[in-house]
């Protein structure tokens, strides 16, 4: 079993295998136990699941802190917190997609489960590409940093309107290339029925599958922000992937908790924008100060401070 101690992307294979094993167990538990009988997820159940995933993520972070050291632990938690916060915007888009296609809550879990399963693969590919680029071209880290600063400033100064799902180019392409059913067919993504034009029995895709495709696309767009953000915190692929995936695993449960009240956190977005500007500027600040990098404890403290402030102001203003 010596192969388990071989190094892959900076860490022994057994560490990667153990993490992937944990993820697979959670997915099997989710689909095979929690959703063995399809039902509408209540607020109480979603809150419990969300806290459960947060507890697991923190437990894994505690192990990282103990086994890999103080700095790695702080970098993991900083990445996890930023990814979790970025996912709130993703939740808002998911809510718009579900509303547009009139997907009932009882079916939303199925879309989110398969969506998150796809995200696990897509994030692995994007993180692998990012790690390779930084390893081969160290100057890419500066590109990531400038991109984050630009994104943060844009979030602060540009007022964005709600996206119009009907004008989404991917939706238009799907409508052009496939036959899309106007109504839902339970949990089915694909169905067979007669084509009124040709009178042939052909495959149609349901609104459930269209919603899944658009949610996957939305995550790719959000990953363009989150992947550079975590690489600006740490270049360790293991910390990058594990913090990302633990944040994503809890996204489904978090959706059912926040979807109805997300509008109350209006000041969280400016706080997140300031976090992105700070994370992006760290590389340049460190060079000006003549140090290798900003200490992980400072990064974690500033990130927590800004985001906590944004949440506190949002709650205060929404009560006023």
What this model shows, in words?
- The structure is a single chain.
- With 320 residues, the protein is mostly helical.
- The chain has one domain (2-319).
- It is built from eleven helices and four strands.
- It has helices spanning 13-34, 43-68, 70-100, 105-136, 140-157, 169-177, 207-233, 237-249, 251-258, 268-289, 296-319; strands spanning 7-8, 11-12, 190-194, 201-205.
- A two-stranded antiparallel sheet has the order 1-2. It has a two-stranded antiparallel ribbon with strand order 3-4.
- β3 (190-194) and β4 (201-205) form a beta hairpin.
- α5 (140-157) runs antiparallel to α10.
- It is globular and about 70 Å long.
- It starts with 6 loop residues before the first strand and ends with a helix.
- The model has no long low-confidence stretch (mean pLDDT 82).
Characterize the main sheet: 2 strands, antiparallel
Query: How much helix is in the residues?
Result: over 70%
Structural class: mainly alpha
**Radius of gyration, taken over Cα atoms and rounded to an integer in Å:** 21 Å
The proportion of residues in beta strands is: under 5%
Low-confidence stretches: none
Mean pLDDT, all residues: 82
Sequence of strands across the biggest β-sheet: 1-2
Whole-number total of structural domains: 1
Secondary-structure element string: EEHHHHHHEEHHHHH
> Can you tell me the overall shape?
globular
Report the span from N to C terminus.
Answer: 62 Å
Query: What is the helix tally?
Result: 11
Q: What is the count of β-strands?
A: 4
Transmembrane segments: 13-34, 46-66, 86-104, 111-133, 139-157, 202-224, 244-262, 271-291, 297-316
Pfam families: TerC
Keywords: Membrane, Transmembrane, Transmembrane helix
Organism: Candidatus Bodocaedibacter vickermanii
């Amino acid at each position: 079993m010596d192969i388990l101690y071989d190094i892959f992307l900076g860490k022994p294979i057994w560490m990667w295998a153990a993490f992937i094993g944990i993820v697979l167990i959670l997915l099997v538990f989710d689909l095979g136990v929690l959703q063995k009988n399809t039902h509408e997820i209540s607020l109480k159940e979603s809150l419990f699941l969300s806290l459960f995933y947060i507890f697991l993520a923190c437990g894994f972070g505690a192990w990282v802190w103990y086994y890999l050291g103080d700095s790695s632990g702080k970098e993991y938690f900083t990445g996890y917190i930023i990814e979790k916060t970025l996912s709130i915007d993703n939740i808002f888009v998911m809510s718009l997609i579900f509303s547009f296609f009139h997907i009932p809550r009882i079916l939303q879990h199925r879309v989110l489960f398969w969506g998150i399963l796809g995200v696990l693969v897509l994030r692995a590919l994007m993180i692998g590409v990012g790690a390779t680029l930084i390893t081969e071209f160290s100057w890419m880290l500066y590109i990531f940093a400038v991109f984050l600063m630009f994104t943060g400033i844009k979030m602060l100064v540009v007022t964005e309107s709600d996206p119009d799902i009907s004008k989404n180019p991917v939706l238009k392409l799907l409508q052009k290339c496939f036959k899309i059913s106007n109504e839902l067919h339970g949990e089915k993504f694909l169905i067979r029925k007669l084509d009124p034009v040709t009178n042939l029995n052909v495959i149609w895709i349901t609104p459930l599958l269209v919603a899944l495709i658009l949610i996957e696309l939305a995550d790719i767009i959000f990953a363009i922000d989150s992947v550079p953000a975590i690489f600006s915190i740490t270049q360790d692929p293991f910390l990058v992937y594990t913090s990302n995936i633990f944040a994503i695993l809890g996204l489904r449960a978090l959706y059912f908790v926040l979807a109805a009240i997300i509008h109350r956190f209006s000041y969280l977005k400016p706080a997140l924008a300031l976090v992105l500007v700070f994370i992006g500027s760290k590389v340049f600040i460190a060079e000006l100060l003549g140090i290798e990098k900003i200490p992980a404890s400072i990064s974690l403290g500033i990130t927590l401070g800004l985001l906590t402030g944004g949440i506190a102001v949002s709650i205060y203003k929404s009560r006023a």
